[in-house]
Automatic annotation (TrEMBL):
A Pfam family matched in the record: MFS_1
Annotated PROSITE patterns: MFS
A GO term, aspect molecular function: transmembrane transporter activity
Ranges of residues in domain Major facilitator superfamily (MFS) profile: 9-405
SUPFAM superfamilies reported for this sequence: MFS general substrate transporter
Protein name: MFS transporter
Keyword Glycoprotein attached: no
Record-annotated membrane-spanning stretches: 49-68, 80-99, 105-124, 136-156, 168-188, 225-249, 255-278, 314-336, 348-372, 378-400
Length: 423
């Protein structure tokens, strides 16, 4: 990329990362919700068995993301995103020709693994390019990650109805491959470009306290890491629960499938827009407080869902839950950079995602599905315990602060924005 326009390179990296993450987001947050009723018919399975799809998807994040965080330090962001794109596209053949639940679970697991190869490098790239606006940059990436599902959920429904299940999956495979391969060349981090002085990323703000980068070993010894980990397990469960339950809940209230999909669309819309809004706000207000408030609001929304009868009211409450889910994604990265630094950012976020992968999926998707099967479709127990998850997460995130530790000798000092008010 030409050095005559150094500022453009920063925004091209952001744009490329957004394009690369679009299809992983659509397939993670929109595809299962829309296709769940079809899968139940195709595989003669109950809600609990289909809910396992999200568990396998998230479990792969818990397993793979840490290693991607390590590998990207060696091979670079562009290479990781290209690998993930090809992997994501080829895996659509698995679901297109799935003949049983085992193949459905395999698709879900491999889809999550492919997402790791795209999401982690994209997040790391923009955090390194936008050192003074990490919250905003993270918000833009996660906005795209979330809003893609809101855009594609109605289209997935129309595509499967108009061109058929197999052909729809093949079309998605081609679109994901083309978009990802076009975007990948623009996603290099500043270090990869071996930039001249004109291409230096944003200078750190001298008024913002600097915290040294911690190694992974140091990070896991801190209280802050484990409170962040618990936050992802609990609030992640509350968010991913709505992904799997939105259309099913709408159908249980007597709405037709197109109307039920609107509940999922409302959730994903505010999850998407909330990511960029809360990411921007987190650069100017206390990150911990902002997350705590939205998590608590989601807990109240879950309690109110069964009290509201109109579709508009249900959509509004689902949107509040989506806002909290989007906030979890967009603000956690900058908060982790504040607390632990950028040198090992990818690996540390990968470890945090083990909570999301192994526990959020079980609590939010798998357990809720089996409870529905056992209770004949009673949502009161599910929404009750998901609200508790939100309330506890709102408390946990308050304790995620920069730890008082000496840095490793080989850890670079990387400027990071304080999690408090910078002004």
């Amino acid at each position: 990329m030409s050095s005559r326009h150094p500022e453009n390179r920063r925004f091209l990296a952001l744009a490329g990362s957004c394009v690369a993450i679009f299809w992983p987001g659509a397939l993670a947050f929109g595809f299962p919700g829309v296709l769940a009723p079809y899968w139940m018919t195709m595989f003669h399975a109950g809600k609990g068995a289909i809910g396992n799809t999200l568990f396998f998807n998230l479990a792969s994040l818990g397993i793979v993301m840490f290693f991607v965080g390590r590998w990207q330090e060696r091979y670079g962001m562009r290479a990781m995103i290209m690998v993930g794109t090809v992997f994501l596209s080829l895996n659509m053949l698995t679901i297109a020709y799935a003949a049983n639940l085992g193949m459905l679970y395999l698709w879900a697991f491999l889809n999550g693994a492919a997402t790791c190869f795209i999401y982690t490098p994209a997040m790391t790239t923009v955090q390194r390019w936008f050192t003074r606006r990490r919250g905003l940059a993270s918000g833009v990436i996660n906005f795209t990650f979330g809003i893609s599902a809101a855009i594609m959920s109605p289209l997935f429904h129309k595509m499967v109805a108009s061109i058929g299940y197999v052909r729809m999956n093949l079309v998605v495979a081609v679109l994901a491959l083309v978009c990802g391969l076009i975007a990948a060349p623009f996603t290099a981090s500043p270090e990869q470009l071996k930039r001249p002085p004109a291409l230096e990323p944003e200078a750190p703000d001298p008024l913002i306290p600097h915290h040294p980068s911690l190694s992974v070993r140091q990070c896991v010894r801190t209280r802050s890491f484990w409170f962040l980990w618990a936050t992802w397990a609990l609030q992640g469960a509350a968010g991913i629960g709505m992904v799997s339950l939105a259309t099913t809940f709408g159908l249980s209230r007597g709405y037709a499938m197109p109307a039920a999909v609107l509940i999922l669309t409302a959730f994903n819309t505010l999850s998407g827009f909330g990511r960029i809004i809360m990411g921007y706000l987190s650069d100017h207000v206390n990150r911990n407080r902002a997350m705590s408030v939205t998590f608590t609001a989601a807990g109240v929304a879950y309690l109110l869902l069964l009290q509201v009868s109109g579709l508009a009211g249900i959509m509004a409450l689902a949107a509040v839950i989506g806002l909290a889910f989007g906030t979890l994604f967009s603000v956690s990265g900058p908060l982790a950079a504040d607390c632990f630094g950028m040198r090992h950012f990818g690996a540390i976020i990968g470890l945090v995602f083990t909570a999301y992968g192994f526990f959020a999926g079980l609590l939010g998707a798998t357990l809720s599905g089996y409870i529905l099967d056992l209770t004949g479709g009673n949502f009161s127990i599910i929404f009750g315990y998901l609200s508790v998850c939100c309330f506890v997460a709102g408390v946990c995130i308050r304790f995620v602060t920069p730890p008082e530790l000496e840095p490793d000798p080989d850890s670079a000092v990387v400027p990071a924005r304080s999690s408090g008010n910078p002004s």
